[in-house]
Specification:
Blueprint: E1 9-13, E2 34-35, E3 38-39, H1 40-50, E4 55-60, H2 65-70, H3 75-83, H4 87-93, E5 101-106, H5 113-119, H6 121-124, E6 129-132, E7 136-138, H7 149-160, E8 163-169, E9 179-183, E10 199-207, E11 218-226, H8 229-235, H9 247-257, E12 260-264, E13 269-271, H10 275-291
Parallel strand pairs: 1-4, 1-6, 4-5, 8-12
Antiparallel strand pairs: 2-3, 6-11, 7-13, 8-11, 9-10, 10-12
Helix pairs in contact: 3-4, 5-8, 5-9, 8-9
Length: 292
């Protein structure tokens, strides 16, 4: 089979209950909690569309149907707004481009991120695809170049045929909070300038290491570009930590057979799934929008 490198599909796992955000997330999905005047997932989908994605696949849960409703057209509300002459407001609610579609498939059982990605296989098929974690929101208020991280990853994938994983520099005291990349050539770390994206072959990842054991300070951000081979590895991955199918286990298998690259991130990201960082992000987004 001829492998295509044209990435137009994206998977966004939204089935989790957001326990780090309780009690806020008890009745409102964490992905719909606001950052300024829009829900967090709005920015994530906008990022995907800006990178050329045409088909969004939400991997959800029966109790979180409000997320799929957000991307649907509310005909009654639309008609009421337009009847009152509020066409501009109505247009702002129907913001998805005509050539972008959103599909929903349910995870069913809470078996981890790897399992969630695998559930999208019937829709993705043999196509390469991006994965965007909705907890992670990249700063949409930075420069145009900083907004193009996913587009750069897709371009790098087309050139190298290697799956791509976004990473970002973190402070030494934060290394133990993240999965940390181990580059095949550690000397390449000296080539990083911080003013442009770059991609490097990765040998593996170390999960939440102590600083003394960390192979770098490049932490995994929630953005990935995979070829469809990742589905076979996920299907053969046995449950591990917490009885869940770990995406990182499948990535390790992919590294050993096909090679995987990391892409260094430009700009900032926010953890919208942690209460402290969410509140900081909300204030930042609100200030940016008030100043616009």
């Amino acid at each position: 089979m001829l492998m295509t490198t044209h990435v137009t599909h994206a998977v966004i796992p939204v089935a989790g209950f957001g326990t780090r955000m309780l009690p806020l997330s008890k009745s409102v999905p964490k992905e719909l909690l606001p950052l300024g005047n829009r829900p967090a997932i709005h920015y994530v989908v906008e990022e995907a569309i800006a990178a050329g994605i045409k088909h969004i696949v939400l991997v959800g849960h029966a109790q979180k149907s409000a997320i799929e409703n957000y991307f649907d057209v509310n005909a009654e509300l639309d008609n009421q707004l337009r009847a009152k002459g509020k066409d501009e407001l109505a247009d702002s609610l129907n913001w998805l481009p005509e050539d972008v579609s959103v599909s929903v498939i349910r995870q069913g059982k809470p078996l981890g991120l790897g399992h969630a990605v695998l559930k999208a296989r019937p829709i993705i098929g043999d196509n390469p695809f991006a994965v965007l974690l909705p907890d992670v929101v990249l700063n949409p208020f930075t420069t145009k170049m900083d907004k193009d991280n996913l587009a750069y990853m897709i371009q790098a994938f087309a050139q190298t045929h290697h799956s791509q994983i976004l990473v970002s520099h973190v402070a030494d005291e934060d290394v133990q909070k993240y999965g940390i990349a181990k580059l095949k050539d550690a000397d390449q770390l000296s080539q990083l300038t911080g003013d442009k994206n770059a991609n490097f072959a990765v040998a593996g990842f170390v999960e939440k290491p102590q600083l003394a054991d960390a192979p770098s300070n490049l932490a995994v951000v929630g953005r990935y570009v995979f070829n469809a081979a990742i589905f076979d590895y996920l299907a053969n991955t046995q449950p591990s930590v917490g009885g869940e199918i770990q995406l990182t286990d499948a990535i390790d298998a992919l590294i050993s057979t096909q090679g995987v690259d990391v892409t260094t991130m430009l700009g900032d990201s926010f953890d919208a799934g942690d209460m402290t960082s969410y509140m900081q992000a909300f204030i930042y987004f609100a200030q940016q929008q008030l100043q616009a």
